[in-house]
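DM from R.C. (forwarded with permission)

"hey, sorry to bug you on a friday — could you get me a structure for this? deadline for the figure draft is monday and I only need the backbone to look sensible"
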Amino acid sequence: MASKQRLGEIEILRGMAFAAVVLQHSIAHYSVVPELAMADGTRLTLLLIAAKFAVPAFIFITGLVLFYNYDGELAYGSFIRKRFKDIVVPYLLCSLLYMVLNGILLDQPPFAWLPDMLGFWITGKSSYHLWYIVMIIPMYLLFPLLRSVVRRLDLVIRDNGRRALLTVVGLTVGYEGLLLLRPWLTDMFHAWQVPGLSAYFTIYADRNIVYYLYYFILGALAGLHITAFLKLLQRLKWPIVISCVIFTLYYAGLVLGGHFPPGPGFGPRFMALILLQPWMALFLVSLVLGVYMLALHIHNTAGIRQKQMWITLSRYSYGGYLAHALMLRYAYAIDDWLFSGWDVTLRTAIVWLLALILSVAVTYALSRLRFGTWLTGIPYRKAR
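My reply, with the result:
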């Protein structure tokens, strides 16, 4: 694999996506507290809408980086070994930690917990945030197949702007159709009861790779034609911004309008913002492109300290992602101890920053240990 110019904006975008994930989960906790006022609900709604780009951005980045870097011969064995060491092993160990912390493996005879452990590893159910890892791992396993498909698609559109536009529109229409059919697919697989497969389209549909490949393929096409992609972003700057504003107003009105069953706080209302919806998919594409432009702007104009902050978040994002659910527990405890009775929005922001800092700090500390790479995915570097 030939060395290529580093895409500095990707590091910034990844850092932003990591921060947005932690913000989303912080908001989820405070969206159901009894003291939540309408003003807090409004602010948290807008913050949550702004942070929804995180998961599609991570998938988009994965596709872009893989196709940007691996444009020659692919040594699949070494490719998979690296991903197994850097991604799968930390996931398995952290998943086991969450099983222990959540009491999943307690009060069972020796080795009776093995089936449960394997089941939680496969499904990512040992903690609410691990679904993403279960969804993204197949993209690495299937990379040769995905690479072949995308390359054939690229042969059709190469050096033909009209075909490229029609292809992206076609992919978008196809994805919208898939999301429209999702309830029907759920009912169909529930009725068929195909072992393993039915669960993938029903109980675990939220982590089904089929429903997220669209963002990966868009990222792949961008990675193959990074110069053309960046020029296109510049040309579409204002349509992207206007689209983000319109969708933000739409979803804010939907949530704040209160057309949902009564329940504690804003928790039930936020169900309107789940990812796998046709209109939401259009919004998320616009939002990912908009945040990408922001990352480019920061990369090109921001000072060293600001860029270094995002790069640090990016470097420790995977280990931090695995750790942040646990760090949020400590942040909630600190909040209950020191900030109980404060403004809910302010408490959310404090907990978000605390969890973000703790997640990065823990990942950094572990990465300095010889065995730390098995928990963080970061290669060990001896301290100087």
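R.C.: lifesaver. Residues 161-192 form the longest helix (32 residues).
me: no worries. The chain has a mean pLDDT of 92.
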